[in-house]
Amino acid sequence: MSYDPIKTKLENNKIIILDGGMGAELEKNGAEMDKHMWCGKCSVDHPELVRKVHEDYINAGADVITTNTYSTTPISMRQYGYEDLIEKFNQKSVQVAREAIENTNNETALAGSVSTFGNFYKLGIKAMIPGFNEQIKILSDAGVDLIILEAMSSQADIVEAMLNCSTKLNIPVWLSVSCVMDDQKNIMLGYNDTIDSDTHVYENFETSINNFKKLHSGPILVAHSDINITGKAIETARQNYDGVIGAYPNKGYYEKPHWRFIDDMTPDDYLNEVKTWIKDGAQIIGGCCGIGVNEIKAISILKN
Ligand SMILES: [Zn+2]
User: Fold this and answer.
1) 54, 60, 74, 65: which is closest to 114 by C-alpha?
2) At the N or C end, where does the chain have fewer CB atoms within 10 A?
3) Parallel/antiparallel/unpaired status of strands 200-204 and 187-191
4) Domains and CATH numbers, the chain
5) Residues bordering ligand 1, an ion, CB closer than 5 Å
6) How far apart are CA 17 and CA 214, in angstroms?
7) Ligand 1 centroid distance, CA of 77 (Å)
8) Distance between Cα 222 and ligand 1 center (Å)
9) Using one digit for the tens of pLDDT, what is the confidence trace for 10-49?
10) Nearest-angstrom CA–CA distance, 57 and 101
11) Residue 274 alpha carbon to ligand 1 centre in Å
């Protein structure tokens, strides 16, 4: 598989279905979450479960699946004493995802997740850059079809640093950022993922998009954000960006190290939300924390 079929579909204004969250689906399948490495260790400890979740997403209709590497960033692995296993963990996650694709649908593309997990702002951007470069290189060498920069919850300058790192290799890049609504109902770059924590507001999303597009021409996705603000964030992105727009929001909230679900939204409710986002110009849709196989299956009927 290569990125070409996805590229062609995007150029022809087709809808691309991305997978949903990995951690919560793994937990549903009986995997244990590590208090430091979250679901990242599962690829090595329980590859059969990670493979199963990937296969479930492919069978549900995902055109693109994402490696279980969100929490295996070099910087967090070093922090928790796994410095000798950085390559092994990341390569294993690519291998397991490839096996899932071979077992199910060879048309599925594989996105390598590069994130800011563990990259606490206090470390400073200079300290984070080698880790971004390292993870991008490992995943790219291991054969992913694209890199998805999961810069969710990150400040704009970190996002820009990641974008700069990603241009060093010749591989397609998608960018994911999170948004929140401020007191004046403006869509802002920021996040709020625990039920009672403060909302972190960084800057106007409009400003962010206009800066990101100087460094990036690939898809921009509103991710790890509240479903209720995702529509407005897509509108903002559409008004400020001519490239491909997408979304994969959250359903629920985080209570370390588990995701808690909110059960009042059915997969069909999610489908109805997604329909409005597509009408507003979103072309890539999936799910983040709390959005699982059932939701991905529901929205897959929108593929054209
Ligand atoms: Zn999330």
Assistant:
1) 74
2) C
3) antiparallel
4) 4-302 (3.20.20.330)
5) 224, 250, 288-289
6) 26
7) 20
8) 11
9) 999 999 999 999 998 999 999 998 888 889 999 999 999 9
10) 10
11) 17
